[in-house]
Amino acid sequence: MTVAAFFKVSGAGNDFIALIAPEAAPSAATIRAWCRPQVSIGADGVFLLEQTPDGARMVHFNSDGGRAELCLNGSRCAAQLAFELGWHCDSLILATDAGDLAARRLDAHRVAVELPPIAGAPSATRLAVDGRAWEGWTVEVGVPHFVLPWPETLRRAPVAELGPRLRRHPDLGERGANVDFVRFHAPDRFEIRSFERGVEAETLACGTGVVATAVAGVADGRLVYPVTALTTGGFEITVERSGSDRLMLGGDARIVAQGTLLAGAVGHPPPAVWL
């Protein structure tokens, strides 16, 4: 009856199911089933973690079952889990599909990761939806983002309605992009709500979205490092310089639970589609 042993982890509210060195990766259908809330464990994604001589390697899948190049909140959680498992004490190299990340444990519930140099500058972008132009920046941070400044309270930002339209906008190409609704407060602070591709919904936090916004805001003169982002989950994530060409992302990363996924976690019907 046993399907798989797992850890449940959370990075600023971005939650994941973690499998330690499984014999094989779960299928896309299994990942979708596990990540569905209320009828299964529920999560924004699944990652596989294995030990390496320098630290650990993770492979990340979004909740739709698709493999993703990078998830920074997932990466911070993966590093925290490796620390908890005793693979390294307080620093390690985490290998991802987007390159190696240097991770450092800040305390029992916080981890920082150093990103490889970000290639390319933010690009001013205008996307038209139903005759209205939305102006922001496209930024590549391992994965693509469209950063959209929002002049009013984020409470009224139409993330669920506008997010999917922008995420799949034809001007963004076949890959589309994550969409970040951002309100700038001060040179060292902003608020953010993110609609994530692969999850196809708003998440409580998006690490790459925080970095993309910081990069765009600094390039536009609205922000100065170090900066702090307030996420939907209520957690704060910081971005600061690490050397001349690298950035460090730090914040909440915690191990929430450990258990066994059973057969009942899969095999349920898809949600109803009302005619």
Explain what the structure shows:
With 275 residues, the protein is an alpha+beta fold. It folds into two domains: 2-116 and 254-265, Diaminopimelate Epimerase, Chain A, domain 1 (Roll), CATH 3.10.310.10; 123-245, Diaminopimelate Epimerase, Chain A, domain 1. The protein is 16% helix and 44% strand. It has four helices and 18 strands. It has helices spanning 28-35, 72-84, 159-167, 207-219; strands at residues 2-11, 14-20, 45-52, 55-62, 67-68, 91-96, 99-107, 110-114, 123-129, 132-140, 144-149, 178-186, 189-196, 201-203, 227-230, 236-241, 247-252, 254-262. The chain has an 18-stranded mixed β-sheet that branches. The longest helix is centred in the N-terminal third of the chain and has 13 residues, at 72-84. The radius of gyration is 18 Å and the shape is globular.
Give the SSE layout.
Elements: E1 2-11, E2 14-20, H1 28-35, E3 45-52, E4 55-62, E5 67-68, H2 72-84, E6 91-96, E7 99-107, E8 110-114, E9 123-129, E10 132-140, E11 144-149, H3 159-167, E12 178-186, E13 189-196, E14 201-203, H4 207-219, E15 227-230, E16 236-241, E17 247-252, E18 254-262
Parallel strand pairs: 2-3, 4-6, 11-12, 13-15
Antiparallel strand pairs: 1-2, 1-18, 3-4, 4-5, 6-7, 7-8, 8-17, 9-10, 10-11, 12-13, 13-14, 15-16, 16-17
Our measurement of the CA-to-CA distance between the termini, rounded to an integer number of angstroms, reads 36 Å
Average predicted local confidence, pLDDT = 95
**Beta-strand percentage?**
35-45%
Using the alpha-carbon principal axes, give the shape. Answer: globular
Under the CATH scheme, which architecture of the largest domain would be assigned? Roll
Give the SSE order as H and E letters: EEHEEEHEEEEEEHEEEHEEEE
Structural class: alpha+beta
Number of domains: 2
Overall strand count: 18
Report Rg. 18 Å
CATH superfamily (homologous) name of the largest domain: Diaminopimelate Epimerase, Chain A, domain 1
Work out the helix count.
Answer: 4
Helix content: 10-25%
Largest sheet: 18 strands, mixed
